[in-house]
Design a protein that fits this description.
- By secondary structure, this protein is of the alpha/beta class.
- 24% of the residues lie in helices and 27% in strands.
- It has seven helices and 13 strands.
- It has a six-stranded mixed β-sheet, with no helix packed on it. A five-stranded mixed β-sheet has the order 5-6-7-9-8, covered by helices on one side. Strands 12-13 form a two-stranded antiparallel ribbon.
- A hairpin with a 5-residue loop joins strand 10 and strand 11.
């Protein structure tokens, strides 16, 4: 059986450090064959098109600071789970770097996210989902960053992709099962929440549907699997008979 830990959007440096610390205890306590991060590992708001005319908002923020914060977390993950394969999907926030390089082609080869996070050196797999539409597959499960933001995004994801698909992007939890009676098959679309902070300044105090969570998957040899989504409230949760706190 293959055991996989799935971590949704972090948007570093706006990750919730307390909730992430609790999840990292699970990362350490169990043997994980693979750790999948579903994209938006970085936020990169310092180069966001939304902030072009809001320079005060990004004062003091730099690409290098974002890379340094991301590398610090990857250093920690590789200490906590040294034998686990790590896979990171490209989210729309990560893809901000490619749009920035489109406007500043003289920097191509110097600032790409995989280079800034030293992924090749670390042996971490990078999946270019947002820029190239590449899904990541284990057994009968497909992983994506996400695509749709309508009210029924889980239904739309599984209907459009036609596979069991698990994703982040929306920062909320939503599940939809699609039964194919002629094929005697059930497919599921499942959004995985987030591990970023609820108090990001651009929200301006508005309420959201965001839910902090992570997920665990257990794959059988034939590709079938079971999965468990663990919700996090007040930086704590209960998993496998133990309470975890950040």
């Amino acid at each position: 059986m293959k055991n996989v830990l799935v971590i949704p959007d972090l948007q570093i440096p706006y990750e919730d450090t307390h909730s992430l610390a609790a999840v990292e205890k699970v990362m350490f306590d169990y043997k994980w064959d693979e750790i999948i991060q579903l994209g938006d590992f970085l936020d990169l708001d310092c180069i966001s098109s939304h902030n072009v005319n809001r320079l005060r908002t990004v004062a003091g923020k730099t690409i290098q600071k974002d890379f340094d914060a991301g590398n610090k977390i990857l250093d920690r993950w590789q200490r906590l789970a040294p034998k686990s394969k790590i896979t990171i999907l490209e989210g729309n926030h990560d893809e901000r770097m490619l749009r920035y390089l489109d406007a500043n082609p003289q920097l191509v080869g110097a600032l790409e996210v995989p280079k800034g996070l030293r992924l090749k050196e670390r042996g971490i797999q990078w999946v270019p989902y947002w820029s190239q539409g590449e899904l990541y597959k284990i057994g009968n499960a497909y992983f994506a960053h996400g695509q749709y933001t309508n009210e029924f995004h889980a239904k739309k994801m599984v209907s459009r992709f036609g596979v069991n698909i698990f994703y982040g992007h929306n920062h909320e939890l939503q599940s939809y099962s699609l039964v194919l009676r002629g094929e005697n098959k059930t497919l599921v679309g499942q959004s995985m929440g987030c591990l970023c902070r609820y108090d990001q300044s651009w929200l301006q105090g508005r309420p959201t549907n965001w839910q902090q969570a992570f997920a665990t998957f257990h794959f059988f040899d034939d590709g079938f699997f079971t999965y468990n989504v663990v919700r996090i409230f007040k930086h704590r949760f209960y998993y496998q008979g133990k309470e975890y706190r950040g």
